[in-house]
Write a structure and sequence with these properties.
- There is one protein chain.
- This protein is globular.
- It has 2 domains: 3-196, Fructose-1,6-Bisphosphatase, Chain A, domain 1, CATH 3.30.540.10; 208-333, D-Maltodextrin-Binding Protein, domain 2.
- By secondary structure, it is an alpha+beta fold.
- The chain has helices at residues 9-17, 26-46, 69-82, 221-230, 249-259, 278-291, 322-332; strands at 56-60, 66-68, 88-93, 111-119, 130-138, 158-166, 170-175, 180-186, 191-196, 208-210, 242-243, 262-265, 295-297, 317-320.
- It has a 7-stranded mixed β-sheet with strand order 3-4-5-6-7-8-9, with helices on both faces. Strands 11-10-12-14-13 form a 5-stranded mixed β-sheet, sandwiched between helices.
- Helix 1 (9-17) packs antiparallel against helix 2 and helix 4 crosses helix 7 (322-332).
- A hairpin with a 3-residue loop joins strand 6 (158-166) and strand 7.
- Bound molecules: 2,5-anhydro-1,6-di-O-phosphono-D-glucitol (AHG) and manganese (II) ion (2 copies).
- Residues 94, 116, 119-122, 212, 247-249, 275 line the site of 2,5-anhydro-1,6-di-O-phosphono-D-glucitol.
Length: 345
């Protein structure tokens, strides 16, 4: 037990809120509600192989992907945890094409939440780690009960962001702009306990790159040169990187946050804007990584400055150790690239 004793996520949120005398508690309640939803989703994820949750609903989501029942369940859990609280003016979800207004029977509030209810869902059947990603924004529209504009804000306007990784343990990691903090679920008491206070991505982290090399033939010349260099396929890299790719963004990101490294989902000739979604995948993780000392770009632009035009807008994503994100930008600009002296790695 740490010298400060056991700190639950509830206590952590309350102590953070006390720093803002004008805080109304609405924001804290949103984080509690998301933590509650994460416990519910985690329970089903752990039983996925048993609860006949596997398989397909036979429907297709806005991404054109077959929806596995667990995606739908996770969406419903988050929606139902948040829709009645009176703290939100609306939501947006990977699983729903349009803006999700608060049902008329409930009051509205001054925040919106955008989420990817289940990230990495294609991995569910294989028992590979999956996750949930969320982003909290302040109401900005004049619409009395909220509208899509309240969800369509650039990343730097987020007031909180976080993710849950349902892996060997269930961890919730979030930031409100005052450090990045990780909580591990103690299943025997159903509480998220502070296990990783003030998370920082290692500055001289491990030389890890995460990318789906199956897309190599569709990449730009700069992207191919970068990965060739990283894997030591060219003579000018004496210390090749290690390749790690789980195929669940949250799991790949979480590992790189802890160990260092670079996750890439680049544009390619088939997906000129990449595959990942700006609002509920790239931007929340960009807020996390920046507050942990890392960087997130689309190859050139800071993710947090990209103005969203639509809810499911995609973006290329380069996220992780600042030095490697900068290296990627140089390769993609096809400049001559001198690897910085990565002392001590
Ligand atoms: P989701 O399950 O929410 O649709 O996200 C899947 C994403 C992301 O988790 C992962 O990094 C990426 O898809 C993997 O894509 P590829 O299979 O094309 O590598
Ligand atoms: Mn996802
Ligand atoms: Mn998803």
């Amino acid at each position: 037990m740490s010298s400060k004793g056991i700190i639950t996520i509830e206590r952590h949120i309350i102590e953070a809120e006390r720093q803002f005398p004008e805080a109304t508690g609405a924001f804290s309640n949103i984080l509690y509600d998301i933590a509650f939803a994460a416990k519910m989703i985690g329970k089903e994820v752990r039983r996925a192989g048993l609860a006949d949750v596997l398989g397909y609903t036979g429907e297709v989501n806005v991404q054109g992907e077959e929806v596995r029942k667990l995606d739908e369940y996770a969406h419903e859990v988050l929606f139902k945890a948040l829709d009645h609280t009176g703290h939100l003016c609306g939501m947006a979800s990977e699983e729903v094409e349009d803006f999700i207004p608060i049902p008329d029977r409930f009051p509205t509030g001054n925040y919106s939440v955008v989420f990817d209810p289940l990230d990495g869902s294609s991995n569910i059947d294989a028992n590979v780690s999956v996750g949930t990603i969320f982003s909290v924004q302040r109401k900005v529209s004049d619409h009395p009960r909220g509208c899509v504009d309240d969800c369509l804000q650039p990343g730097y306007k987020q007031v909180a962001a976080g993710y849950v990784v349902y892996g060997s343990s269930t961890m919730l990691v979030y930031t409100t702009g005052n450090g990045v903090h990780g909580f591990t679920l103690e299943p025997s008491i159903g509480e998220f306990l502070l296990s990783h206070p003030h998370m920082c991505i290692p500055e001289k982290g491990q030389r890890i790159y995460s990318v789906n090399e199956g897309n190599y033939s569709r990449w730009s010349a700069g992207q191919r040169r970068m990965v060739d260099w990283m894997k030591g396929a060219t003579p000018d890299n004496p210390r090749p990187f290690s390749s790690r790719y789980i195929g669940s963004l949250v799991a790949d990101f979480h590992r790189n946050l802890l160990y260092g490294g670079l996750f890439m989902y680049p544009a390619d000739v088939k997906n000129p804007n990449g595959k990942l979604r700006l609002l509920y995948e790239a931007a929340p993780l960009a807020m996390i990584v920046e507050h942990a000392g890392g960087k997130a770009t689309d190859g050139q632009r800071r993710i947090m400055e990209i103005e969203p035009e639509s809810l499911h807008q995609r973006t290329p994503l380069f996220i992780g150790t600042s030095e490697y994100v900068d290296l990627a930008a140089r390769f993609l600009a096809e400049e001559t690239v001198e690897e910085p002296a990565l002392a001590g790695v």
